[in-house]
Amino acid sequence: MAGVYTAEERVVRDGVLIAFEGEVMTNEEAEARGLVAAVEEEPGRKAKTPKEELAERAGALGIEVPKKATVAEIEALIAERAGGGDAK
Questions:
Q1: CA–CA separation, 87 vs 4, rounded Å?
Q2: Measuring CA to CA, which of 21, 78, 80, 82 is 20 to 30 A from 61?
Q3: Most confident of 11-15, 48-52, 68-72, 82-86
Q4: Is 77 exposed, middle or buried (0-12, 13-18, 19+ CB in 10 A)?
Q5: What is the C-alpha separation between 30 and 50, in angstroms, rounded?
C-alpha cells in the first residue's frame, strides 16, 4: 500500500493520542494505528477513514449523519440508536 495519509481530525482512543489533526504519515502507518482499513492494492482505490466507515454504518441503520459530524458524534448517534433512543 503506497502513498500518504493525512489525519482529518484529532483522534484519541482510551485517553491516548493516536493522531493529531493534519498529521501526515504513510498509509502503512495509518493502517497500523487503525486510522484506515486495510485495502488490497488497487490503483486509484483510496482506503476509507474511520469516519467514512462509521457514516456508512450509521446510514445502514437509518441514521442521518450531518456532513461535518466528528467520529465521536457519529459514534454517539449509533450508540443512541443501539440504546433505543430516537436519533434524528
A1: 35
A2: 21
A3: 68-72
A4: buried
A5: 11
